[in-house]
Amino acid sequence: NYCVHTRGQGCSYTVSVSVLGLTVYISVFLSLTHFPLSDQEQVARVLERAVLESRVREMEEENRQIRLQLNQLQGTAGQPADGANHTECPRSPTVLKCELIHVACVCAGHNASRDVVTLVKSILFHRKNPLHFHFITDAVANQILSSLFQSWMVPSVQVSFYDADELKSEVSWIPNKHYSGIYGLMKLTLTKALPSDLTKVIVLDTDITFATDIAELWAIFRKFTDKQVIGLVENQSDWYLGNLWKNHKPWPALGRGFNTGVILLYLERLRRIGWEQMWRLTAERELMSMLSTSLADQDIFNAFIKQNPVLVHQLPCFWNVQLSDHTRSEQCYTEVSDLKVIHWNSPKKLRVKNKHVEFFRNLYLTFLEYDGNLLRRELFGCPSHATSESVQLQGALEELDEDDQCYDFRRERITVHRVHLYFLQYEYTPTGDDTDVTLVAQLSMDRLQMLEAICKHWEGPISLALYMSDAEAQQFLRYAQASEVLKNRKNVGYHIVYKEGQFYPVNLVRNVALRNANTPYVFLADVDFLPMYGLYDYLRKSVVQLDMANTKKALVVPAFETLRYRLSFPKSKAELLSMLDMGTLYTFRYHVWTKGHAPTNYAKWRTATTPYKVEWEADFEPYVVVKRDCPEYDQRFVGFGWNKVSHIMELDAQEYDLMVLPNAFMIHMPHAPSFDISKFRSSPGYRYCLQTLKEEFHQDLSRKYGAAALKYLTAQRNI
């Protein structure tokens, strides 16, 4: 027994595990607050023991599998009978260690792409085997999920995508009343859609949550008889019994029918019996009297099984506990440990009526808000195939010097953050004149209150990158769905960059928003500024007036600020100048960082009626309109300091003309100082590293642009 003394700030407990008959006792300490500095060494030892405990458990699992294999060889492994409510022993049959498990999902649109992430998290949390996900997607889901998995970089996980548009002709002839639309029929096409050498696959709906290792479900394939080709759980509602209301006429089904939210498909056998032709003939026959499907693919699967019952393997019902209203799902479990898979198959989703719905909801919310970074763990004992991205990242990490005073800054630059593009519904129709402008900005949770005001001031498309944790992303989702302003704006692209590391990677987040703008021009802004009313239309006219299509220009929008939280926003330049004279408004940062915007030449702007050119000066960081293919922000700059300055410097190095717009303005709204500016002000080490990064940026600029870039180094030295 180990004991850690922490002045009453936590508690310890002892667990025991048995490995090959040897009992090992390990104490794990749980703290509810930060550890005192003097206890760090003891805590490190406890954490080491926690890691050991995890490894011991893995060893115990290996040992259990070996014993089971020996028992099977000796003929002692029993095979329990099937049954809808029978409690199946998870130890028989088993899956080989490191055996690849295949999972397929049909996913279309923004909402389904968001839902499937929670499903994937629940699978990854419990899994001990390599996984290969097969996604049948539309163009939207393909873009979202391919970007997410590429940036997630989970070891021992492969992902393949298949174009749903190529499969539509296979099922578009089937009338379907289900809310899932044509995509609700596509599971019928999997023998054709998936690779011909893929022998079996687990097929899941996106509204599924796993409460156990998916390998237990995969192992049931070994229990199929020679004739069985499909594994399903009995439907837990009375739908197919035909007694829900007067004249209710469901599709034919065997007994209560089967639910297709969780399917084991033996693809090799299905192809052998001519599945594609068989389900088509079944659908054609039944549609002569039924006219349309009510439950999409499920109706056709059930009609097929009714005619061919020998082909189905009935799974225990805890493999698909169906949480729709008025189901028999409560008969599937007596203990929490009985639960395997939860299926939110009611349109009400989390609002469904069920005696234990609070428990199920909390389980779902756990994975919904779970930090996906924690799932980037190697499988113990299973070698992972290294991708080119992971090899490149590992090489970059090995080049870093951990004794470097600025190691943390350099480490942040190469950190790969998970990115979920288009977190909410997004619709954009390009204008026909190629003058459209997207407002591009980034924010974190503490600036969320600015979104409604920005949407009221800017009616054009917006690309926003939000730096958030998984839990914060869900808070944002609830906020956006409850806002009348935000939920009615479909031309705003919200892109989540998930938190990782100790710094705010501001330029990486900006680049995510910039890359995902869909217009020829972008207005590079900050979220704590409100653009003047009508700025969107004014910028589009300026793009034409200044021949932006054929010249290299950056249009400067003059920045002002107010120190008042309540502001009567000026409706014109004349009104703004009046407020400036009265002291209600100020030129931006005139009292703390004059150099940042002084080159705008506010004195000239007061009387200007036409755009005028200004020259670059050191530390100039205006907000500009440029072509979408402009240089990206330099990602070495994290947190506070030089993140915009370096970008304007590169625009100047590429010979962009800085043109100030005479009738445009934006106003900065007051807010509490960011955490990063506080670190900059209080930490000499932070300021030293920022200066080091500046010097390295200058050197890189000189290598890239030659002698023309020397002026930046000279200007910096003269400050």
UniProtKB/TrEMBL annotation:
Keywords: Coiled coil, Glycoprotein, Glycosyltransferase, Golgi apparatus, Manganese, Membrane, Metal-binding, Multifunctional enzyme, Signal-anchor, Transferase, Transmembrane, Transmembrane helix. The keyword Transmembrane helix applies. One of its GO terms (molecular function) is glucuronosyltransferase activity. Pathway: Protein modification; protein glycosylation. It is a single-pass type II membrane protein. Bifunctional glycosyltransferase with both alpha-1,3-xylosyltransferase and beta-1,3-glucuronyltransferase activities involved in the maturation of alpha-dystroglycan (DAG1) by glycosylation leading to DAG1 binding to laminin G-like domain-containing extracellular proteins with high affinity and in a phosphorylated-O-mannosyl trisaccharide dependent manner. Elongates the glucuronyl-beta-1,4-xylose-beta disaccharide primer structure by adding repeating units [-3-Xylose-alpha-1,3-GlcA-beta-1-] to produce a heteropolysaccharide. Supports the maturation of DAG1 more effectively than LARGE1. This is LARGE xylosyl- and glucuronyltransferase 2. It comes from Oncorhynchus kisutch. The lineage of its organism: Eukaryota, Metazoa, Chordata, Craniata, Vertebrata. The gene is LARGE2.
